[in-house]
UniProtKB/TrEMBL annotation, chain A:
Keywords: Amino-acid transport, Cell membrane, Membrane, Transmembrane, Transmembrane helix, Transport. It comes from the Bacteria. This is Branched-chain amino acid transport system permease protein. It comes from Azospirillum rugosum. It is a multi-pass membrane protein. The chain crosses the membrane at residues 12-30, 37-54, 60-83, 95-113, 142-161, 190-217, 223-249, 256-278. InterPro entries: ABC_transp_permease (IPR001851), BCAA_transport_permease (IPR052157).
UniProtKB/TrEMBL annotation, chain B:
This is Branched-chain amino acid transport system permease protein. Keywords: Cell membrane, Membrane, Transmembrane, Transmembrane helix. It comes from Azospirillum rugosum. PANTHER family: ABC TRANSPORTER ATP-BINDING PROTEIN, HIGH-AFFINITY BRANCHED-CHAIN AMINO ACID TRANSPORT SYSTEM PERMEASE. It is a multi-pass membrane protein. Pfam families: BPD_transp_2 (PF02653). It is found in: Cell membrane.
TrEMBL record, chain C:
The keyword Transferase does not apply. This is Branched-chain amino acid transport system substrate-binding protein. The keyword rRNA-binding does not apply. InterPro entries: BCAA_transport (IPR051010), Leu-bd (IPR028081), Peripla_BP_I (IPR028082). CDD domains: PBP1_aromatic_compounds-like. Residues 1-32 form the signal peptide. Belongs to the leucine-binding protein family.
């Protein structure tokens, strides 16, 4: 029983992390049809930059901000310099992002080396806390904080998309890009803002996820695959879908690890294949 | 070669062009046949033969992507299935797992299973389009590699199989440099000719029409889905042939050989060369393999991936149809292969 | 017209390319008779880059000490890079041997690469292969290659003394193991259990974690309460992750560590959450802070030669260093004579007995090292650093752990469920 509850909690918190990573990915895809396969590289870059800043100023929250800012700026640059020029060429954009991720991964290995980095989170969320209604079961406070942060980001994104003018433009753009442009909105600006926020979220997730686990080369591919699976299962372009997908994948991974470690990792991919085969647009997705 | 003669495209070539193409293929064939006379063992096998069979695997991707409009990242997986199956049914260093069949039984079964695997993958992937196809095939590729790594009963887990050898025909060691090169060349030529032939058949033309406008094809009564699945089956067979050679070349197969990274490398080869002409994947494979082997001498050994990544980026940004497309544009000649779909 | 010209031109292009290729192969640097070419192969790509770099530092240090000459000949080092997969190791080895024409190849770094390299060695009997740091047992125990030499000990040997110490001195009677799900950790767990079970200990459960898994929280939730300690054989990032998560979840069972769990890469990992490591016993081929003049000299030389290297040489640097030292000694013995398929040199290597920074090293009949193993415990050093303090040196451990060879072979290769003692 204890194991089941703890495993469920682990699944929820891992799902929270996956949601943080995948939300930016799905946001960008929803509006721009851009499958950014460099999203994992942005995750790792945010983590490294965040770590470097947090290490210098010894203030974790500043590291989080730096991780967000660095990748947001890079994302903006990529959108303005590259993706803008190949609008509508989905496949070519995907290829370019593959190239960018190969290059970024190697540059990061060059700069930060192959060591493992770990953050020191603030005292408040470091360590473990007693789970309520339980006989003395302890659970990492940081993971609870992660759950709260993911919920906050989720609500924040929802408010941003549904309650702000830019959000309204983004939603309009998802539905009908041409119409949005025709009604006098500067679509390029909306695209740039979206890409910036999406990339920034990857960097943010990098610091937050890097604190939960650790940062090392190879994490980029891991989180890229995780976000891909999450958004495909949930439905590309849908924030709610990303949340649902993240929970399913997070739980599947942890139950797999706990109850059937040998093939645990395979199950995740089987869920994906099943989802694509039965409902190619994802659980919450609409047909393009 | 017979390819030029069996030309059934609508565009009937002039006599002059026909002669030109016969001369072109003939001379290229001669050059490839004569190449080992000029090269050392290393250049014959590690560069020459490897380019030929990796190019064949990349060709299976070009066939799907260029003619079928479906970019699949699972091509190396199909190759891997064939490699694993010759290990399981044939002879390996694990006699407790391998069934030890003769090569003439093990090889056809391996090719058959790999083709079946590709067909099933196609049945799943052909339901999706564009980037979804890339992602579902990537997922299948990763899942298969993970499964092989974890399964010891059939796939011998992390270590995989070693001791894989091509059959000995008439006392000839097919893994010796010269025979292995010619074996790879023969398979590559057959694969190339097969692709060129099929693209000009009714099936191939219909497939290209499906790529260009699936709705119209459906409306005039073609079974779009079946055409796509059949394209996957054929790509599986091509990749499986390359996979056999890959297994014999390394003498081994393990989950690391078919992980996500190597799968993406196949895409890199096809894109570098260009998905507009069946020769593209071979050009791409040659460039990739040269870089892979000699990057360490040209630059810091640790920066191989940077060089590959930058080269890939430049090609994708500057010439969406790869080196072959670049060449075609330089010679201002209209493409005879499928036009770029991007 | 244009078409046929294009055709011919492209063929000429192909010819040109072909001749250029051939030219390149001819232009491969000619071998000077008074120099010996050595290939140094390590993982210089991918996640193990740091380890590979440190391995090559060890080799370079050995060559530097010999002033890049041995047996009166100049030594030229050519580097090769793999990404830790057997395929890439063989690809790099083939290039070093067939294209760069090295006389001796030193490498590779990791276990399955080593097994593949042994098979590759059999196809090139006239080249001598000296293992870098790979430590899979099978490389030399079963089906060895006559021209493959390993001067470092293997993953089972590395565990010598640990099971005994845990059961008898530490008093742990019941443990669980947490290790990655592949060959090297299998052999580490086997080495530990051989002694631990004999001393009356029980291994209640073994958790095999899929490679690449970073989230251990659900494994941690499965660790039972009625145990005395956890044996952990994870490397690098994974060890750091496990420790952090275990501590965060309120775990307090002491740890017993595999050979690469608390090596320099983990002790030197950035971050402050390391206090839990103190008191952890482990065993391996080196001990950072061994109070021995020769070892200290080795560490000092390493630091001097590589100011931006690791704070102390890793076991990878050490293994490659041994390989380099052995090679130089062997070449000196035969005065640089590599004629006759390197037979004289290989015979000299087989007979070699070296006095190394970690004690005496010699080879058994399978060309596998017999050497000292260090039983250590983590203590806090100066400047808030952690280090492995030597508790005991287990002298001259052989590949069969002191058992009769036939009896040892009967145990079978280590796997997920071999051995067992619940």
């Amino acid at each position: 029983m204890k194991q089941f509850i703890l495993t469920t909690l682990n699944g929820l918190t891992l799902g929270a992390l996956y949601f943080l990573v995948a939300s930016g990915f799905t946001l960008v895809f929803g509006l721009m049809r851009n499958v950014n396969l460099a999203h994992g590289a942005l995750y790792l870059l945010g983590a490294y930059v965040g770590w470097t800043v947090a290490d210098k100023v010894e203030y974790w929250l500043l590291g989080v901000a730096a991780g967000f800012a660095a990748t947001a700026v890079l994302g903006l640059g990529l959108q303005l310099l590259i993706f803008r020029r190949m609008e509508g060429q989905d496949l070519r954009q995907t290829m370019v992002t593959i190239g960018i991720s190969i290059v970024l991964a190697d540059l990061m290995l060059w700069f930060w080396g192959g060591e493992t980095y770990q953050f020191t989170p603030p005292e408040v969320i470091d360590g473990s806390l007693l789970l309520p209604f339980t006989p003395n079961w302890r659970y990492p406070s940081y993971r609870i904080a992660l759950l709260v942060a993911a919920a906050a980001i989720g609500v924040g994104l929802w408010l941003f998309l549904n309650r702000t003018k830019v959000g309204m433009m983004i939603r309009a753009g998802v539905d009908d890009r041409a119409m949005l442009a025709a009604s006098g909105v500067n679509v390029q600006r909306v695209f740039a803002i979206t890409f910036m926020v999406g990339a920034g979220l990857a960097g943010f997730a990098g610091v937050v996820g890097g604190t939960a686990l650790s940062i090392a080369p190879g994490e980029d591919v891991r989180y890229l695959l995780a976000s891909l699976i999450v958004v495909i299962v949930g439905g590309l372009g849908s924030i709610t879908g990303a949340a649902v997908g993240a929970l399913i994948i997070g739980l599947a991974e942890q139950y797999g690890l706990a109850y059937s470690p040998t093939y645990g990792a395979v199950y995740t991919f089987l869920i994906l294949v099943a989802a694509l085969a039965l409902r190619p647009q994802g659980l919450m997705g609409r047909r393009a | 070669m017979t390819i030029a003669i069996q030309d059934t495209t609508v565009r009937s070539p002039t006599n002059l062009a026909l002669h030109g193409r016969i001369a072109k293929y003939g001379l290229l064939g001669l050059a490839l046949l004569a190449y080992p006379l000029m090269a050392s063992d290393f250049w014959i096998v590690q560069i020459g033969a490897q380019t030929l069979f990796m190019g064949t695997i990349a060709l299976s991707l070009m066939w799907l992507g260029g003619y079928g409009g479906m970019v699949s990242l699972a091509q190396l997986t199909f190759a891997g299935v064939a490699a694993y199956m010759v290990a399981v049914f044939g002879v390996s260093n694990r006699p407790d797992i391998s069934l030890g069949w003769e090569w003439w039984a093990a090889i056809p079964v391996a090719l058959l299973i790999a083709t079946a695997f590709a067909t099933i993958t196609g049945m799943l992937a052909a339901r999706t389009e564009g980037i979804y196809t890339i992602m579902i095939t990537l997922a299948i590729a990763v899942a298969f590699s993970l499964f092989c790594r974890q399964n010891y009963a059939i796939f011998n887990g992390f270590a995989g199989f070693a001791g894989l050898k091509p059959p000995s025909l008439f006392g000839l060691n097919l893994r010796a440099p010269l025979p292995f090169y010619y074996l790879s060349l023969a398979f590559a030529a057959a694969a190339y000719a097969g692709v060129v032939y099929v693209t000009r058949s009714t099936f191939g033309l219909a497939l290209q029409a499906v790529r260009d406008n699936p709705r119209r094809m459906r409306a005039i009564g073609f079974n779009v889905y079946a055409h796509r699945v059949a394209a996957y089956a054929m790509s599986g067979l091509l990749a499986a042939v390359g996979g056999l050679l890959l297994a014999w070349f390394n003498g081994r197969i393990s989950p690391g050989s078919i992980a996500a990274g190597p799968c993406i490398n196949v895409l890199v080869m096809a894109v570098l060369g260009g998905m507009v002409h069946p020769v593209g994947p071979y050009v791409g494979a040659l460039v990739f393999i040269l870089l892979q082997n000699f990057a360490i001498d040209l630059i810091d050994p640790e920066r191989f991936n940077l060089v590959i990544g930058v080269a890939f980026l430049i090609i994708v940004l500057a010439s969406p149809d790869g080196l072959v497309g670049l060449w075609q544009r330089m010679t201002r000649r209209r493409s005879e292969g499928p036009s770029s779909q991007r | 017209m244009v078409r046929s010209i294009w055709g011919v031109r492209s063929v000429r292009g192909a010819f040109l390319a072909a001749t250029m290729l051939a030219g390149l192969s001819i232009a491969a640097p000619a071998q000077a008779a008074d120099s010996i070419k050595v290939g140094g192969l390590a993982t210089l790509e991918g996640a193990f880059t740091v380890l590979g770099q440190d391995g090559l530092r060890g080799l370079e240090l050995a060559l530097k000490e010999a002033n890049y000459t041995a047996g009166g000949k100049k030594i030229e080092l050519v580097k090769g890079s793999s990404d830790a997969t057997p395929d890439s190791a063989i690809r790099a080895a083939r290039k070093l041997v067939e294209q760069d024409k090295v006389d001796i190849l030193v490498g590779p770094l990791s276990g399955d690469e080593g097994v593949a390299m042994r098979d590759f060695a059999k196809t090139h009997p006239n080249v001598t292969f000296i293992n870098g740091s790979s430590a899979a047992q099978d490389t030399t125990l079963r089906n060895p290659a006559p021209n493959f030499y390993r001067f470092n000990t293997d993953g089972v040997q590395w565990a010598a003394g640990l099971g005994d110490y845990s059961a008898k001195t530490k008093g742990y009677k019941r443990v669980v193991t947490v290790a990655e799900d592949y060959g090297f950790p299998y052999s580490q767990v086997m080495g530990f259990m051989l002694e631990f079970c004999k001393a009356g200990g029980k291994v209640a459960d073994k958790f095999w974690v899929p490679i690449g898994n970073k989230d251990f929280s659900s494994i941690i939730a499965k660790i039972p309460d009625n145990i005395n300690a956890i044996y952990v054989a994870l490397g690098g990032a994974d060890a750091t992750n496990f420790l952090t998560q275990y501590e965060q979840s309120g775990g307090d069972k002491p740890m017993i560590a595999g050979s690469i769990t608390v090596d320099q890469t983990v002790l030197g990992a950035k971050g402050k959450r390391r206090s839990y490591l103190i008191g952890t016993p482990s065993a391996g081929p080196i001990a950072d802070t061994w109070d021995d003049a020769k070892w200290k000299q080795f560490v000092a030389d390493y630091k001097k030669a590589f100011p931006d290297g690791l704070p102390s040489p890793s076991l990878f640097a050490h293994a490659y260093y041994l390989a380099g030292k052995a090679m130089v000694a062997g070449l000196n013995e035969v005065k640089g004579d590599l004629g006759d398929g390197e037979k004289k040199f290989q015979a000299a290597l087989a007979k070699l007995t070296m006095d190394t920074p970690t004690g005496k090293v010699s080879l058994d009949k399978n060309r596998q090292a017999v050497a000292d193993i260090f039983l250590t415990e983590v203590v806090e050093g100066p400047n808030n650093t952690l280090m492995n303090k030597v508790v005991k040196v287990i002298p001259q451990v052989n590949q069969t752990m002191g058992m009769d060879e036939a009896e040892f072979l009967k145990l079978g290769p280590a796997s997920r469920d071999n051995p067992e003692c619940r």
